[in-house]
Amino acid sequence: MIRKKFVSKDSLYNENIKKSRLYGVYIPRDIDDALKKLTELTSDEARENLKTTDEQTVAHKLFFGLGRWMTYNWNFEEGSRFSHYLRQKGLIYTDDMTTCMLILFHRHVTGKPLETDALINQLIKERQKKIEEEQKNSKIIEVITKPSDHKD
C-alpha cells in the first residue's frame, strides 16, 4: 500500500516533532524505543498479567488507562516525534495510534512477532471501513444551492 507522507502546516506540530522531550516527558523515536519505554514504565506483575489475555482484550481494557497515558504524555493529538513517526507509517487517527501501540506492547510482552506493517495496514483498513459505513448511513438534512455569481 503506497501512502502519502504526512505534512503539517501547524507551527506547534512542526516544532514538537523535533523535540526528544515535551513538557518534561521523554518522547520515543520509534516503535522499538516506545516498547522499551513502556517496559520500563510497567511492573513485572503488570506485564505478567498481560500474558493471560488476548491482544484485542488488552487493547480494549487498557485503552483508557495506559492508552490515554500514551496519548497524553506522548502528545499524539498536538504532535510529537513519535506521533509523527506513526503518521508517516499511515496511522493518522490518535485512537488508531493508541490501539496499535497497545497491541504491539502485548505482542512484545508475550514474545510474539510484532508484524507491525500488517497491523498498521489492518488498522487503516478498519478505519476506512468505519468512515465508509458512516458516510453510507448518514442522511442529508438539507441541500442548499448557491446562486450563480455570473451575469448573462
Provide a descriptive summary of the structure in words:
With 152 residues, the protein is an all-alpha fold. The protein has one domain (11-137). Helices cover 57% and strands 3% of the residues. It contains 8 helices and 2 strands. The protein has a two-stranded antiparallel ribbon with strand order 1-2. It is globular and about 75 Å long.
Features:
152 residues, mainly alpha, two-stranded antiparallel ribbon, 57% helix, globular
Provide a brief overview of the structure.
It contains eight helices and two strands; from the N terminus they run αββααααααα.
Percent range for helical residues?
Answer: 55-70%
Mean pLDDT: 91
Please tally the β strands and state the result.
2
Derived structural class:
mainly alpha
Counted by DSSP, the helix tally is: 8
* First-to-last CA distance: 49 Å
Side by side, the strands of the main sheet go 1-2
- Sheet-strand content, in percent, reads under 5%
Q: Identify the overall geometry.
A: globular
Radius of gyration over alpha carbons?
Answer: 19 Å
Question: Would you spell out the secondary-structure blueprint of this structure?
Answer:
Layout: H1 11-16, E1 21-22, E2 25-26, H2 31-41, H3 44-50, H4 55-62, H5 66-73, H6 81-88, H7 94-110, H8 116-137
Antiparallel strand pairs: 1-2
